Amino acid sequence: MTTTDLIPSPSFSHRFNRWFSRNLIRIYAALAFFYLFIPVAYTFAFSFNNAGKSNLVWQGFTFNNWKNPCGAPQVCQAVANSLKIGILATVIATALGTMIAFAIGRNKFRGRSTTNLLIFLPMATPEVVLGASLLALFLNMRINPGFWTIVIAHVMFCISFVVVTVKARIASLDPRLEQAAMDLYANERETFRYVTLPLVAPGIFGAALLSFSLSFDDFIITNFNSGIVTTFPKFVYVSAARGIPAQANVIGSSMFFIALIIVIIGQVISKQRKR
Amino acid sequence: MAFLHAATSSHSNSKNALRSRGLTPYLLLAPGMLWLITFFIIPIFSLASTSTMVRPDGAPLGQYVQKFRFQNYIDAFQANQAQYLRSFIYAGIATLLALAIAYPLAYMIAFKSGRYRNILLVMVVAPFFTSFLLRTIAWTQILGDDGPVVSFLKTLPFVTDSLRLTATPFAVVSGLTYNFLPFMTLPLYASLERIDPRTLEAAGDLYANAFTTFRKVTVPLSMPGVVAGTLLTFIPAAGDYVNASILGNPNTKMIGNVIESRFFAVVDYPTAAALSFTLMATILILVTLYIRRSGTDELV
Asked: Which residue of B has its CA nearest to A167?
């Protein structure tokens, strides 16, 4: 810095060039974020569109869609289904996945690598194959797809994500903390209850959030296994041909803000804990 | 986010905490594994069995009997070669584009973001929370004939007035790139963030310039992230049919579109099953080759 300061006032273009090359990567990142957020901004903006049936062209500003989010036929029914399915799938997948994560993360046993493979495979299989194969099973067993087949499918693809999330948290634990608890005469169950579980809890919470957002946003697998039941993504996809009501944008935007608030609260809590 | 950390991390400190405790691990595993076996493994076999079935003459739609007709695979493949090829080409281009966009982004968050790091990470995932279908439809508005992009491009001298962006391969690949970008960014970030800055300083001390340091130190150390990110982008992109059906035209159909319409519009389960099975097998082979080549076995 000192040497450049000695050079008498470099020209503006020179200074700009230097600033530009030094901040190139930040400019690039800003553009990438712009790209990431444009569609979100569009979705949010068009939730205020005074649109009739088709919400593709701007027709004037209104708060009506936000005042009356259930105004369009079936929107709220679809959202209610998605919420019910999301909560059920999250609870079941988080419970099953966490148990597997503890089994893998904390124990040596025969079949550990087979287990790992079985966890990895659903994540490496395209959704269309997962959906089609499950539907093939239901059809071969003469089961009519509906609400519960969606829950079953969602639990299936969420388990793997829960396992990896919780396993990562278990792996990052300092084993000395548990040893210390044992040294202080806690038995195995007490150690787990008062030391291990509280330390792993943020991972379990994160896994649950992830499961819920995967389930709530899933379209492809749901579409294969839903029969006549409509979820929110399915509602959007089906109505895309005729024009999506602005209420769908209201719900999409509110999900965005709700999730953002939850994530920020989570960040704040974990920061306070670290202090 | 942590699951992507996990996908690339090696758990060195977990190994010493491992112990064997008889039945406990099996009891913990049983319910979840049973679920995966019943609703993932058995369905795959069910799909395999459906793929060789035949509809008897005169039977109604949707009724098939097992005849072990492996010719189904050849028929299905020959009828849909174009869509197959297209799926892998589109997914490949989208993966490369996502890598080009995500690497500098992840690099910036890992090394240049200072105290804003967590906020920026949340911002990478945040668009994910708005339904991805709504965002894909927003792209039809952005790229639409009256949208800002087309209007702007038309002001340029060398662009004709008949320019269209929606219902083109360009729109489909853009949609794929966009939708799977967070899946690329997070594993890249996870592996870049773990690089000890001192290794980069050491490269500088040994007279490597910035570019050489990047090429010889940063890139090799971030390879696990590159592998995880490209897989997490390529696999879902190759099987996707939402982008192709919302942003594309009949000539941009991918294999996912064919499988979907064979199942629902045509009620031709064996062909749909054969196509799904071929897709899965192709992807598994590509993934195995890719992981072998890049020398990262830590994913599993």
From this structure: B6
* 3-class SS of residue A173: coil
Nearest to B287 among A33, A124, A153 (CB): A124
Give the DSSP per-residue string, A66-132. HH-TT-STTHHHHHHHHHHHHHHHHHHHHHHHHHHHHHHHHB--TTHHHHHHHHHHHHTS-HHHHHH
Please choose, from the candidates B199, B32, B186, the residue with its C-alpha nearest in 3D space to the C-alpha of residue A168. Answer: B186
pLDDT in tens, A1-58: 445 555 556 677 777 777 777 788 889 999 999 999 999 999 999 999 887 667 777 8
- Residue A61: name the closest of A44, A71, A49, A46 by CA: A49
Q: What is the ipTM of this complex?
A: 0.85
The answer to whether the CB atoms of B20 and A109 lie below 8 A apart is: yes
Q: Do A105 and B14 touch (CB under 8 A)?
A: yes
The domains located in chain A, with CATH, are 10-66 (no CATH), 73-244 (1.10.3720.10)
Count of structural domains, chain B: 1
B148 part of contact set with chain A, CB < 8 Å: no
Domain holding B274, by residue range, is 2-9+72-294
Partners of residue A266 in chain B, C-beta under 8 Å:
none
Q: What is the CATH number of the domain that holds B160?
A: 1.10.3720.10
Give the torsion through C-alpha atoms of B82, B84, B89, B95, to 10 deg: 160
Q: Are A103 and B25 in contact (CB under 8 A)?
A: yes
State if pTM tops 0.90.
Answer: no
Quick one: DSSP state of residue B127?
G
CA dist B206 and B208 (Å) reads 6
The helix-helix angle for B255-264 and B269-294 (nearest 10°) equals 150
- Confirm whether B28 is domain-assigned: no
Residue B249 in any domain: the answer is yes
Largest CA-CA distance found in chain B, in angstroms, rounded: 79
